[in-house]
Fold:
Amino acid sequence: MNMQAIMQQAQKMQRDITKKKNELNKKEFTGTSELVDVVFTGDKKLVSVNIKTEIASDDKEIIEDMFVIAVNDAMLKIDKETENVLGAYGSQLNGLF
Structure:
């Protein structure tokens, strides 16, 4: 494979990765716990928080714990989807060099 072909292939891959990453950034991921739901975009920006109404107002520590669980759940989903969408490009890079 000549250098020009390698460069063209790398540029195409870079465009594809950028496109996929932009699509992923626009996608929403919901993290849930027993008492809290959170929604993040693929670029890990918090969109919304929903604290379920059946919670007594004096359960502050429980709400905080549930919030942490829900956020971590959303982050895990984002990371998994990022790997699913962009992971294939890592193996393609190995074939270039």
